[in-house]
Design a protein that fits this description.
The complex is a heterodimer of chains A (about 180) and B (about 130). Chain A is α+β, with helices and mostly antiparallel strands and about 180 residues long. Chain A has five helices and five strands, in the order H-H-H-E-E-H-E-E-H-E. Chain A folds into two domains: about 70 residues, no CATH class; about 80 residues, 2-Layer Sandwich (Alpha-Beta Plaits), CATH 3.30.70. In chain B, the strands form two sheets. In chain B, strands 3, 4, 5 and 6 form a four-stranded mixed β-sheet that branches. A two-stranded antiparallel sheet of chain B has the order 1-2. Chain B is globular and about 50 Å long. The N and C termini of chain B lie far apart (about 35 Å). Classes of the chains: A alpha+beta (about 180), B alpha+beta (about 130).
């Protein structure tokens, strides 16, 4: 989404927040928002303004809905190739799936949360892991790094700059 | 800036090809490429498709401007295939199909790989992810 789109969405959300707050306040017995609303629709000119605002908000909502429904998940992507035929991008979600598949090849990993960022020298991957206690951390971390690097390079054609393995927890350790 | 739709003039008049036609041709060509699991068209298109309306141009964005047409393709790739190779094949096949069938000149075919899935998941149409991805 473009900067203007994000800005419109922000304003729209703020308006919704104010309306929601007013509705909750009225339902709790605070009548001032209702007084202001009655004042706002009391004069014909005010009714026109209120109606126009309502129509504008409705149009923005429809535009947002259409934007959201089309290609919404394709914004975070890494450029893999740029040639005469065109460009090839891989989404961060797809990269994470490749990482998850690679990690499945390594025994001893109970849970994994990958964080992927793109740098000029290649991908930077952080693997937050929970590992089984019967494996040693250095060996497992190295196996993970090799498996993830191989898969990203072989399947994704991606350049990997760094893979950090962070062991967050051990599986099977009683606290 | 308004895009100028491509026109093919002949003795009898002018032939104009709608973006939807180019999308359908490109979609059919792309899905035939080995390694392409499915096209990705966003939740709106998926919902409409689930309700029974087949969209052959799903996941295709056509930008036709005068003589040049650029196509953006959003695909899900089958796990195990080399993404750059599959993407290259998609670019070749789509360019060939669109140029042959419509007579338009395709300046670029940009491939966006939005996800990766196994063949079984693609057949079951359960979505791309069998993991929890943030």
């Amino acid at each position: 989404m473009s900067v203007i789109g994000r800005l419109v969405l922000l304003v729209y959300n703020l308006i919704l927040l104010v309306i929601a707050g007013a509705v909750v306040a009225v339902s709790l017995g605070w009548s001032i928002p209702l007084v202001y609303f009655n004042m706002a629709v009391s004069a014909p000119e005010n009714k026109i303004i209120m109606g126009t605002v309502g129509v504008i908000l409705g149009i923005i909502a429809i535009i947002m809905l259409i934007w959201g429904s089309r290609f919404s998940s394709h914004t975070d992507a890494v450029l893999v190739e740029k040639g005469l035929a065109g460009e090839v991008y891989i989404s961060i979600a797809a990269i994470k799936i490749i990482i998850m598949k690679a990690v499945k090849q390594v025994e001893g990993v109970k849970d994994l949360r990958p964080i992927v960022s793109c740098a000029p020298d290649g991908l930077r991957v952080k693997l937050h892991t929970t590992i089984n206690t019967e494996h040693t951390v250095p060996e497992l971390a190295q196996a993970l790094q090799i498996a993830v690097k191989d898969n990203l390079e072989k399947i994704g054609g991606l350049q990997v700059a760094e893979i950090k393995v962070l062991v967050d927890d051990f599986n099977g350790v009683s606290k | 800036m308004e895009n100028k739709k491509p026109e093919i003039p002949n003795d009898l008049g002018v032939i104009r090809i709608a973006d939807e036609v180019v999308s359908t041709v490109a979609g059919l060509a792309a899905i035939e490429v080995e390694g392409v699991a499915t096209m990705s068209g966003g939740w709106g298109t998926d919902l409409v498709e689930k309700l029974g309306k087949k969209n052959l141009g799903k996941g295709i964005k056509v930008d036709a401007n005068g003589e040049q047409t650029s196509i953006d393709i959003f695909i899900v790739i089958e796990f195990g295939y080399s993404i750059p190779k599959v993407a290259e094949n998609v670019q070749k096949e789509v360019k060939l199909a669109v140029e042959t069938m419509t007579g338009l000149t395709v300046s670029a075919v940009n491939v966006h790989v939005v996800s990766v899935m196994t063949k079984k998941a693609a057949e079951d149409n359960e979505g791309a992810v069998d993991f929890n991805v943030d």
